[in-house]
Amino acid sequence: MPRPKYLRTRPSGRIDERDTVFSRRKLAEGSERARAYYAAHPEREDADRQFREAPGLLDPRAALAHPLMFPACDATFDTVELLHAAVDGDAAPSRIDVSPEVLTEFLRGWLRLLGAHSVGVTALRDEHCYSHAGRGDSYGKAIVPRHAFALAFTVEMDHAMVASAPAGTITMESSQEYLRSGAIAVQTAAFLRRLGWPARAHIDGKYEVVCPLVARDAGLGEIGRMGLLMTPRLGPRVRIAVVTTDAPLLPGSETHDETVLDFCARCRKCADACPGKAIPGGPRIDANGLARWQIDSDACFLVWNRLGTDCGRCVAVCPYSHPDSPLHNLVRRGIRNSSLFRRAAIRLDDLWYGRTPPPNPLPAWIPPPSKP
Prior knowledge:
By secondary structure, the protein is of the alpha+beta class. The chain has one domain. It contains 14 helices and 8 strands. Strands 1-2-6-3 form a 4-stranded antiparallel sheet, sandwiched between helices. A hairpin with a 5-residue loop joins strand 4 and strand 5.
């Protein structure tokens, strides 16, 4: 049977980080920055007002507030922020001579030892980078791509913590993996600078690149229906960090797994389970030159601000998110090799887990919200 045909395309322009919901949520109503932004984008002001009227992520007034989980998440994000000062720095004045093959293989092995699940290298492209910064003191600053290569890697999110989404476990796990991937990225960038090469870590709150695009082009997966990176072994149940550098690295041959996209086109489970109906159920569209499923990020983010967590129902119900076990890996192999198997796998997943399965109970060590 012929394999599906899903063309890989590239964005025709760069994304402005100021347009992301995370940046817009930080705009103080009535401030000079907000007035300037909404003068340029009046169509976004009403949606953004709804974000700000909702309690907000990890707010104790939110619908899923928890007296222990929310402070635990805040503590983890606070620790991530401590890494921000170390994402960049000066390279050593002299360079250590090493071949691209040796250095790349060393980094792959070392990052896996540090906790990375998958590692890839790509040439850094203009469209991988934001056009302007949208957070912190760098807000509005033009971002100039300044490195030759990008090293992307994923870390695994714990299945049990994800399966309870949209409870606070999903944000506990997200924040923890942002911390783990951030520490690995900062450590890697520091190592490359010690070799004499410029290097910058791109971690939560300090991105200059669009991590899913970099990871896709580094061969780590495809952009799925929910707008996240779909990896072959863990689906979207990962977090990503990137290190850009001029160190001599060896990009892998670009891979394109059409079977993942074909599965997403048929499955639609994330769209059915999404509380905000933010995930489209139809075909991919052309979004700024990139063929993709375009989620409604405003609808998604409004759910976050009302619940107080980063929801994660799409990640939890995705058939690719099942544990990395022999049985599920056998199913993944069948999905890669047969269109008929893909159709059968979707039906069997619905039969076994349900089309819109309910969240799992909280882990036993986490008390219910009423019993701190």
